[in-house]
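Entry type: protein chain
Record version: 2
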Amino acid sequence: MPSTPMTGTDTHNGVARQAPAATQRSVETWMQGAQALTVPVDLMSKLPTVDLTRPVEQYFQYVQTAVDLNRDLATTWAELVVSLSGVVREHAEKVSHIVKDQTESVADLAREQVEKKTEQAEKEQARKTRQAEREQAKQTREQARERYDGLTKAELSDDLAERELPKTGTVEELIERLVGADSE
């Protein structure tokens, strides 16, 4: 909800709402004082005489000063609002446009950074995926080789001959040829 400037009436109403509470507190203080004065008569003679006229006058003078100050403040605010000229409003609009432009620039920069971070994360994920695929292929190849480990060159050559594959090469080459044929 947009805030509205406080008017003199609002300030006066605020002070007017606070005055009853202040008066109520005064009455309560008076009542407490009166109750305290209702002590037995023999104690009353020992109590000094208290003149409350001066404190009461000071209290109401304080209340009147507060009302006067609030009225002056409300009047000053009203005068300031009225004196706000078109030039000031124009400057405020310019500042608003500048802030809007800066906000859009910051938003664009933030979007670019998010896109860059996302791209980096996607590249990292792709790299990890390729690495995992290579590791999986390596493990699969190792498992496929286990079948042929321990066979002699002659046994490997026989397997290759059954598959109509070349039989020449080292034991490693023969095993690799058989593993390659198994994966096809």
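Comment: The chain has six helices and no strands.
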